Every structure is written in structure tokens, then in C-alpha cells.
Amino acid sequence: MSNILRILVAAIALAASARATIATDAPPNSLVVTVSGLGQRALDDPAAFDFVQSLTTEIGQRLAGTEAHRRAVGWAEARLKAAGFENVHSEPFTFPAWIRGDESAEIVGSVPQHLAVTALGGSVATDANGVEAEISLFRTYDDLLAAAPGSLNGKIAVVTQHMVRAQDGSGYGAANPIRRLGPSEAAKRGAVAYLLRSLGTDSHRLPHTGALNYEDGAPRIPAAALAIPDAEQLERLAAKGPVRVRLLLTPTVQANASSWNVVGEIKGKERPDEIVLIGGHLDSWDLGTGATDDGAGVAIVFGAARLIAGLPNRPGRTIRVVLFGAEEMNFSGAAYAQAHEAEAGKIVVAGEADFGARNVYSVQLPGGAASSDFGRMLDRIITPLGANLDRRPALGGGDDIRELQKAGVPVVSLRQDGSDYFDTHHTADDTLDKIDPKQLDQAVAVWSAFTYLAAVSDVNFRSLAATAK
Amino acid sequence: MSNILRILVAAIALAASARATIATDAPPNSLVVTVSGLGQRALDDPAAFDFVQSLTTEIGQRLAGTEAHRRAVGWAEARLKAAGFENVHSEPFTFPAWIRGDESAEIVGSVPQHLAVTALGGSVATDANGVEAEISLFRTYDDLLAAAPGSLNGKIAVVTQHMVRAQDGSGYGAANPIRRLGPSEAAKRGAVAYLLRSLGTDSHRLPHTGALNYEDGAPRIPAAALAIPDAEQLERLAAKGPVRVRLLLTPTVQANASSWNVVGEIKGKERPDEIVLIGGHLDSWDLGTGATDDGAGVAIVFGAARLIAGLPNRPGRTIRVVLFGAEEMNFSGAAYAQAHEAEAGKIVVAGEADFGARNVYSVQLPGGAASSDFGRMLDRIITPLGANLDRRPALGGGDDIRELQKAGVPVVSLRQDGSDYFDTHHTADDTLDKIDPKQLDQAVAVWSAFTYLAAVSDVNFRSLAATAK
What is each CA distance from A226 to A119, A135, A419, in whole angstroms? Predict the structure, then answer.
């Protein structure tokens, strides 16, 4: 019996000391049985679905900076308290809030047609009458990058590259620069506005929003996403001759808007200063009700931690649930890391659920942990739940924990099936009906198993990583 | 060899008289071979898809009464002429054109939320500031009908009954009164506005429009359809307490607007006054580009007739293609029947393709024809194409030929697979990408087989029906 297993068994025995049935010299199977039981309870627990149902129904959209997000913060605090979490509070930060205005686009000229578009988060506004220009259409982003400076002078640049459907979301990663960087790349070549085929895998007239990142020094031009059928329509029309488009966007920015990272904890019994941090983001885009992004994620970590809080005894380490407050515009992770800079060394591991509502099919641990006793035990527990331990280490764990990771915090990635996540991602279609409660519960089960094991053990991911190198 | 088969063989031999290879005493298999060959050519003919692609790309939406529909009429005439149709012309009629305005709805009060709605065709406008009231929500239409007079005074009535998915579209038929008659039923009970769960089988934030029919004498109240996720959201909220909604609709009506039924013919060689009439409707709803409703239908009958026009010899009877001009608001069929009242007795049979772009899975002939020699021969030809002859007679053939049917014209129903037709029907999502060219071509094949057999033979559906009685 390895040291780590002895420690784990001792920890669970200690945690369960009020129940004399678990002896300190119980075989390692005891912990497996305990954690497996936790996972099985998650499969029949309505709490996570109830959480996301209530959030999306009683609040709806909750873009950071809106009154609705402020209400969501109060709602979340009350929920966490009611579920028995401790140290429930909200940590404020300020950020420039981008608020959507009117948005429309049409083909003008002899074949006038409406186009379904939505402004990219962070886009500047057009003139009050919109911007009207001939389009230059590029079938790939590389084609745009290959265009000479000045070649897009006075044009609306349009990139219609397809995003690839992939279970692990790699299609989104590959296409992301089209949305984030495309506006400035087009502006540097003279374009007066920018349109992209939505980063999505559906074929509905519901465009996908998402943030852009203007490049310092490049002109800031208005930018929007076309619904996928509309991008295809533009391709067909552009093949026939010149096409003129008028685009109207009227977003505004509120400097120094308020947001909050909402926190609740299950305090550790033995080593409360050691923290297993799990999170999701409470804010959402404004077009839908943020059911899969990220109502599901906050529901999953809430549901997992709540089940652990309901055990007869607490794990040795503290489990901290963080519901981040401005992920979509990329502000909450940095705010959190900055506020908790001094504490980073005490965060054992961090993970974020922000990839929809479907089942977890694999878990990537911090480097060196997959082949450890911790990894082997986790694998035994999650395999019956339909998830595998991935031998590859987690390269990242979510946007809100990236800054913690940079500060040395080990991260875990519980990979959910994202095959259809980008059908509705960042669209008006991100609503409750897209969530299958059974799949959501499976994700809760795997999260609860990982979280409990990490909190009940004294696994040290930093030293495992160092040893593996 | 039956009389009818002798006649059919003689007819095809006559039609093919320039080609000496088909003898007048050829076995009945010859006609089967000829028509089957026609069907096979349809399966590899890009003409129908090209037609609907061009129509939806170069025109887009074409609600009757809009400038776009006027352009579509010119486009269609040019297409028919270019394809070799004869007697191409457009038959004008006037009607009251309903034109969509602004439309929006939101939940007001402590949990404000946007609702995705679209006005029903024919709805009156709200006040310029909209109508705001508490909702009364009914889970079934029967529940609304059971409400007492006065019980909805000052309320917005909401009916959230689900529409059932069915291959034959019977779910739409069953639910249709909710949209057509619900507004007046609610008004008679005191309601100030009416909302229904869209008649659709999808779960997208794209509401389904469609016409209503106000009842004479009942107050005319504004009426709109909720997207299906929004109807479900209202159900959840209404279960928690009172819900107030503000609805804004600003449609207008243009009296004496112009539309046209576009006609093209393949003149019969022997009995040109005997007419096999096949049609679809050129007008569409305004939210999408009318790809499946009814770009596909006009493309199918165009494609089928064009293939027949391309045969070395013409059938004995005239094939008339009619692209109706105001089906969605129910005006073109009556206009056509009225203009052709004197000719009705010469119309051998009429059929309309207006049920999407998928394959024909069964054919319903006029009463008495299924068991005739004509029916048996048709069955031999369409079975290899993946369609069956339905023993049940066609009860109807499409909205635009209903008035002809009332005037005694036999009708045929080529039933297309409508399993997913109501996912996008009457929504912004009715776009070209929803059409599978291979399935469209199968429909063209079955239509070409039926149309050719009806035009090359002297089948008399009226006498078959009389004999069968």
C-alpha cells in the first residue's frame, strides 16, 4: 500500500470519524466506495438542474454591467447561503462594461435583403446612420491576412471561414483569431468595418456574439458576426458581382462599471487554509439566457460542492466555489488573481466548468498527476461514470483561472462533450431547453468525485509536477 | 391487356412517333421504361436546385405585396421562358397586402426579459407604445375555449399548446386553429392581445409567423407567436406568479395591392385544351428567404415540367405550371379559380407542391384512381424511386387548388416527408441550407413521372371517381 493511499485512507477515516464503521486501516477500496457513492448520488440529484433552471428563468441574461447581472449576484449569494455554504460573499471589481445597442445589416442596391448580424463584444459603434460600403469577401482568414495594406480601403471586410465541429472544442480555438484579431487585421488594411461568419457549428439565423480584441495602434472599426446562412448568402451573391452592405451598430461602454466574483466555501476540517478552488462564471452574454454558457457550469460546481457539504464529515481541505463575474469580456479572472495574489500558493488546484452542460468524457490533471496514486484512484472512480483519465496534462483550465495558473496554481480540466456546444454558444438560442438534466448530472458526478478526492487527500500537484519533469 | 393500357401505349407511341424505335404495339413495359427513364434523369438534374438557389439568393424573401415579390414575378417569367415553356404570362389580381412592421415583446416588472415574437399575418397593430397587461396562460387551446366570457378582460391571452411532429404534417393541421382562430376566441372572452407558442417543432429563438383569420363581429386584437423557448419560459414564470408583458406590433395593410399568378405551359400535341395543372407558390413569408416554403415547391414543378419539355415529343395533353402569387395570405387560389372558372372542366387534374424540399414518400390520387390501370402503372414507376402509391384518395392537394377542387377539379397529393418541415416553417430559418438537393431531386422525379403519365394518357379521373362510388 503506497504512502499516498495510506494518507488518503487516513484522511477519509478521519473525515468519517463520527461514523465508526470506517477504520483507519480500511483497505483503499473504502475511499473508492465513498467517492463512488458520492458520484452515484449526483446522478440522481436535481440540485444542479434546479439551479440553472432558476437562474435562467428568474434572471435570464446577465451580461456583466447590466442590472440583471447585479440581481444574479444577489440571487447567487442567497442560493449559496441556503445550500449551507460558508463565508458567502461577493468580491467587487470594476471594469469597462460594453452594452449592446441596436444592430442591423442589409444588402443595399438592386437586391435589397436583410442580414442577421450581432455586434462583437467590445466593438465600437458605427455612425448613427450606419456604415455603407462594398464588401471584400475572404473565404479564409489567411486570405485576409494575405491582403496588402490599403487593399481594403473603404471596404467592409467579410471573412466566411467555417468553424469545425469537434468534441473537444478545438474548432473554436482554431477559429478564435478570426473574431478576436480579425477586426484590427482588416482595419490595418484599410477596411471601414468587419463582418465574420459566426464562430458556430449550426445553420440558424441566430448570429454568435463574442469578444474582440482591438490591437493597439490599429484603427478601431465596427465589427459584427453574420448568422451562418447569411454568410453563405453573401458568398453566393459576391460570386455574382459587387455587393454593398449597410451595417448599423450602436453599442456603448460604461467605464468603471461594477461586477463581483461570488464566493462560497466548505471549510476544511484539518487544513482550512489549503484550497481546492472550483468555479464557473455567473455572467453571460446578453442574447440568450446563458443556460449552457455558463449557467450549466456554475450549476455543476454548485451541485458538486453542495453534495460534499451534505456528507456527514467535511474533507480536510477547504473547497471554495467561485462564481466569476465578467468572464465573457475577460475581466473576472484577472480581478480574482490580483485580489488573491498572496494566497495563490495555498490553492492546491483550480478548475472551471465553462464548456456547456453535457457529460464529462475525460479528465486532464496537472502534469505528473495522471500516473500518481491520486490519478489511479480517480480513474477507478470516474470510469464507471463514463469518463476516462486522460494521460495528457491539463494545459489550461478555463479563462477565469488562467491568471491563477500563471501565478503557479495547478489546474485541472474536466472535459465535457462539446460536439453541439457551438450550435448555440453566444447566441439567443442558449436557453434552458438545450440542457439534458441527465448529462448535466453526470458532469456533477465527475466534478464531485474529483473535488472530494482533492480535498480529502493531501495530494500535492506542485510536487508531482516537479517530480515528473 | 386492358383498354387503358392500350391507350397509354398508343399515346406514348404517338408522342414518340418521330423515333421509329417505339412501335404502336409495344408492350406496356415501354411506357414504364420511358417514364422510369424520366425519373432517373430527374435524380441527376441540377435544374430544380439551381432554380430555388437562384430565387432565394437573387430575390430572397418575397412576401406578396412587396417590391421583392414583384421582382420575383419578373424573374420567374424570364426563367420559364428561358427553359422553353410556352404561353408564359402573369395573371394579375388585387388583394389587401399585410406588411410587417416593428415587433417586440418583453416581460416587465421585477424580472424584465426580452421575448422573441413575431406578428401573425393579418394582425392589427398595437398602440404606438404597445399594449401592456398581465397574461392569462393556457396550456391547451381547449383550456382557452373553456374560459368564460369576460374572464380575460384586460389580459393578454397566451396559449402554449405543443405542436406534434408528424411526417405527414398532421400535427400542423391539428394545431392550426390555435393560430387562425385563437385571436378571436381570446378577444371574445375579453383579451386585449394574444400570444401563442409558435406552431413549430424546433427549439430555437426564431418564432413562426403565419396568417390568422379574425372572426366577423369579434374585436380585432393584436396577435403574435412566441419562439418555443420563450413560450416555455413564460410557462415557468407564470407558475411562480403574475407575469406582465408588453407587446408592440406595427404592421400595416395596403388595400388593393397587386400580385400575379405566373403561368407557363408545355402545349399538348393532340388535346391541348386538356390541362394537367401543377403548381407551387412563388410568394413567401418575409422572415426567411422562402427556401422550403415554397421555393422548393416551385422548383419541383418547374424541374418536373422542364424535363418533360426536353423529351423528343410532347404528351398529348397540355402541362400547365402555375406559380401562385399570394398563398401565404390565402388569396391566389381563389383568384386563379375565379379567373379560370369556365375552364375548370378541362383541367384533368391539379396538384400543388407546397410541403418542403424532402422526398415524396407516397402519392394519393383522386378517388377511384389508385386501383385503376393508371394507378398500377404509376405505382410500378414510383416504387423504385422510393415512393408508394397510397390506396387512400387525396382529400386535398394544396391551398392554391382548393377552390379548383371545389369547382370539381380532381386533385392529387404527392406527399413529401415533413418530419422536420415545421422546424423552420414560416421562420427566419427557412433558408437554402435547409434543402438537401438529392431529396429535392427525388421529389422532382416523382412529380415528373406523375405529370407525364397524366399528360400522355387519356386517364379520366372524374369518371374513375364516379365509377368507384
Answer: 9, 13, 21
